[in-house]
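Problem: given the chain below (229 residues), write out its structure.
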Amino acid sequence: MCDHTYCYTPAVQRIRELVRGGQIGEIQFVDSVRINLGLVQPDVDVLWDLAPHDLSVLDFVLPEDIRSVAVAAHTADPIGAGLPCLAYLSVWLSNGALAHVHVNWLSPTKIRTTVFGGSRRTIVWDDMNPAGRLAIHDRGVDRLRAGNVPQDVRRQALISYRIGDTLVPALHEREALMSVMAEFSGAISERRSPLTDAEAGVRVLGLLEAASRSAENDGARIALTEVSR
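Solution.
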């Protein structure tokens, strides 16, 4: 079992239900920001320090038929720490969607926000807002069928904007580590794999290894099939 703690928070548990249950439609994009004025680590860069949280959540909530297929990472060390202190990571998904992760040790403002954009609804998870960690927006952009629309006006005619309600669901706060231990105990007593099993850990490590390789090659796109296991 992997201690992917964020996967056991009430907010992420609800996101998984919404995404896998189809309530937001097909995933179109994921945009995550995890930045703060953090401790510059002497033995690990910002990707390996912060991005595992976002990548483990991404792996946890995606439907089983969608997987990560390639990554590209750009990093920088503007203070001369010897290791990257900020990074921008792109992850291509098998359904054509794109996930983006921004991690940074140098920001004076602490932000923990992830947006899951779907074809029907969009989820905004703001982990710094205990009064409303999740907001589900029934708004977005729809693409209509072409039909007999002339080519010169097709681009404009196919786009419509949907403006609907925003729902802030009530979440029962529970210490994530308690849920981790309950899942660990349950997996043993029920003789089953835990929600965050070794395979989940391998997938996250594969993304991180590919991201490091991409950063070393000026942000080149790296297919996950190129990362040995």
